[in-house]
């Protein structure tokens, strides 16, 4: 089938990509994974062009990093302007105003009418690490509670906080101490015969029992929760669960941290996903789409918590770089200018409508779920047993790549297909991408029947 935006005219990898791939194999360790076996030449909006001239619709967005699109003009212009002035002075040597301006804007945008302060770093993992440091400093406690299937990074501490053993943790231990994993709300895989309402009560009681049987609440500095689990499979918890956990944190003086690294900056139809749950976190970690591809992250928090650390106890050489700050300021301008919160909601409705139709058509789709434009399908071998079907997801991703669509898998079992398209994607590009995805599912299903 011919498509308007997606056009793959070579095998993958193409001739030029093959040459670069050989160099990659020689000089770059295989431990650094890659998706589609080709190399980008140009990117604009929601379209990628590789070195062999193939074009792709991007439903991955650099794993949720490109909500405002590739090479958004406002971001590019801000970066050119900044490069001509100064590239880096180190905020802890000579400060610069973009850092202050960005902190001010984010403090005002974050949920809650309390006073807030903001610090900046380089990566999502650094943001999580610093949120834990800040919480420990404030509470004078050491314990950290995270949730099953959660992902928080690849550094020693954040790897310890992450659930999936392979590929993130296997043979990389020993791990950081005082990390405790609590059960997370996962309605699709609730006990058989239990209603959603009963499950809400059940999983909250499990969390309360966890605080009795696994770790004493008086020793917990922070509970770190993804409002929607990313790598874990785009699992959307109930409002009752999130509110219940937050309330228990308040009761025991525990710092409640919302990890918004993948969910933030309009992905779910709001600046922060936690806003959907009517919960005000004590700390929020941010990164990914915050910088439109520039490495920058941050922690937004209650002023009384953030101020407990002394000079020199937080920060780093490149933390909150001028380029990162300018990119992030431009991102906020773009979100406001094009109303990307509303756009995220509209895209989510279109995607979920198509996913629901696909679920009716194909028995291998066990569940469709999402919040705003953070949407996924969970694939199973049997709808009754819900046995995970990782193999078919791998086939679908490959079939999509061959047709000019970039998408991603996720989930503890690797059986979830997730979409993270730039929110500036046009309706026409979105529909074409969904058509390719549907065609890829059909092809993968046929391949399964043949085998």
From TrEMBL:
EC numbers: 2.6.1.19, 2.6.1.22
Keyword ATP-binding: no
Keywords, sorted A to Z: Aminotransferase, Pyridoxal phosphate, Transferase
Top-level EC class as recorded in UniProt: transferase
A Gene Ontology biological process term: gamma-aminobutyric acid metabolic process
Substrates-to-products reaction catalysed: 4-aminobutanoate + 2-oxoglutarate = succinate semialdehyde + L-glutamate; (S)-3-amino-2-methylpropanoate + 2-oxoglutarate = 2-methyl-3-oxopropanoate + L-glutamate
Domain of life: Bacteria
Gene Ontology molecular function: any one: (S)-3-amino-2-methylpropionate transaminase activity
InterPro entries attached to this UniProt entry: 4NH2But_aminotransferase_bac (IPR004632), Aminotrans_3 (IPR005814), Aminotrans_3_PPA_site (IPR049704), Class-III_PLP-dep_AT (IPR050103), PyrdxlP-dep_Trfase (IPR015424), PyrdxlP-dep_Trfase_major (IPR015421), PyrdxlP-dep_Trfase_small (IPR015422)
Swiss-Prot/TrEMBL cofactor(s): pyridoxal 5'-phosphate
Pathway recorded for this protein: Amino-acid degradation; 4-aminobutanoate degradation
Coiled-coil stretches: none
One Pfam family in the UniProt entry: Aminotran_3
Keyword Metal-binding: no
PANTHER family named in the record: AMINOTRANSFERASE CLASS III (PTHR11986), LEUCINE_METHIONINE RACEMASE (PTHR11986:SF58)
Family per similarity comment: Belongs to the class-III pyridoxal-phosphate-dependent aminotransferase family.
Protein name: 4-aminobutyrate aminotransferase
């Amino acid at each position: 089938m011919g498509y308007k935006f997606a056009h793959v005219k070579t095998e993958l990898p193409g001739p030029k990509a093959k040459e670069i791939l050989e160099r990659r194999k020689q000089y770059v360790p295989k431990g650094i994974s890659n998706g589609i076996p080709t190399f980008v030449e140009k990117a604009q909006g929601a379209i990628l062009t590789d070195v062999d001239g193939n074009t792709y619709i991007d439903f991955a967005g650099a794993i949720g990093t490109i909500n405002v699109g590739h090479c958004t003009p406002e971001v590019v212009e801000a970066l050119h302007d900044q490069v001509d002035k100064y590239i880096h002075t180190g905020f802890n040597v000579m400060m610069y105003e973009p850092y202050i301006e960005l902190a001010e804007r984010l403090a005002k945008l974050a949920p809650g009418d309390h006073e807030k302060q903001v610090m900046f770093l380089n990566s999502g993992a650094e943001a999580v690490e610093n949120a834990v440091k800040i919480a420990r400093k404030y509470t004078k406690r050491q314990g950290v509670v995270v949730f099953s299937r959660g992902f928080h990074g690849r550094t020693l501490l954040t790897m310890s906080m992450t659930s999936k053993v392979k590929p993130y943790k296997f043979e990389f231990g020993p791990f950081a101490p005082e990390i405790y994993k609590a059960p997370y709300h996962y309605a699709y895989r609730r006990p058989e015969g239990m209603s959603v309402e009963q499950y809400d009560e059940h999983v909250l009681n499990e969390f309360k029992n966890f605080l009795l049987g696994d770790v004493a609440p008086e020793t917990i500095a922070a509970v770190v929760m993804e409002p929607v689990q990313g790598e874990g499979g785009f699992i959307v918890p109930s409002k009752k669960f999130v509110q219940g956990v937050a309330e228990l944190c308040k009761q025991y003086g525990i710092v409640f941290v919302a990890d918004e690294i993948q969910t933030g900056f309009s992905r779910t139809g709001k600046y922060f996903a936690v806003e959907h749950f009517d919960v005000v976190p004590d700390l929020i970690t941010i990164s990914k789409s915050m910088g439109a591809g520039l490495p920058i992250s941050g922690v937004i928090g209650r002023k009384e918590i953030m101020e407990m650390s002394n000079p020199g106890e937080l920060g780093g050489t490149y933390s909150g770089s001028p380029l990162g700050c300018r990119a992030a300021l431009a991102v906020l301008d773009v979100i406001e200018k094009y109303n990307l919160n509303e756009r995220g909601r509209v895209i989510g409705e279109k995607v979920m409508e198509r996913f629901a139709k696909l679920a009716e058509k194909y028995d291998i789709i066990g569940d469709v779920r999402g919040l705003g434009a953070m949407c996924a399908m969970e694939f199973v071998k049997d709808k009754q047993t819900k046995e995970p079907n990782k193999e078919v997801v791998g086939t679908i991703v490959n079939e999509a790549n061959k047709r000019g669509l970039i998408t991603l898998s996720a989930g503890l079992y690797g059986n979830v297909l997730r979409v993270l398209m730039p929110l500036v994607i046009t309706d026409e590009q979105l529909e074409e991408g969904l058509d390719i995805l549907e065609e890829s599912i059909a092809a993968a299903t046929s391949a399964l029947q043949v085998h």
